[in-house]
Amino acid sequence: MRRREALLTLGAALLVRRAWGDTRTSRFRSPSLGRDVAVTVQLPPSYAVGNRRYPVLYALHGLFESHDFWAARGLADILASAWQEGDVPELIVVSVDGGNSFFLDSRQGAYQDVITRDAVSWAESVWRVTPGRGGRALLGVSMGGYAALRIALTVPDVFGAVASHSAMLLRKPPTAAEGASAWHLRAFHAAFGDPIDGALWAASDPLELALRADRERTPALRFDCGAQDRYGLAAGHQELHRRLETRGVAHEFTLAPGDHGYEFVREALPASLRFLGRHLIG
Fold it and tell me: Which domains does the chain possess?
């Protein structure tokens, strides 16, 4: 009897795992950095069966986080629930560790190239993925949201759809006089210089890039922010929305109740997943 119960328990666990997919940690060699980069990979439920190819969602974390944010913050569970409910097509998630680099090509290293070249090349050589722009989406949170929007506007031919939550959209570089904490400033200075390099800041700023956005080439784009964001990022999101509208760039924008943090992100993520899923080629 005990053996039968154990087998039933194991069978139930395997069914749950199959329904919710498989999340694992891996590493790939980055030619842009000359070292290995850690990733979290979430595979869809049906990946282990057959030879089907899947679109890929590349996920970018926030400041002071790493690749494991996708699972640790409950985002992998939200995607798995969306699969169970049939709201989002099956896809592969590749969450990349970018440290506190802002995923920027700077004196810290070519971190934007890690995303737009190295991670894409690795995923398309290792996993059964749908190659090409139409099979690639990009999603970022906070610092990663800033990077996702910047990549969408500077290298629009890499990803077919891009979404962000609570992206770091500041009207000007942060300063201690205006309330920026010492630990935030250390991260900004490491990436942008101390004092902050104004030219590098402007060249990387989605708000500035939106002034020149190409409505024909820009990927399908969605972004949102909490109306009560404690860093004042709601104003930057409203301005990005206004500038893209002026340029005639199609996009979805939502300003919803909420602060800066994962309570807001977890509420907003299902809408972004549905948006990205609609624009991906399986």
Answer: 22-279 (3.40.50.1820)
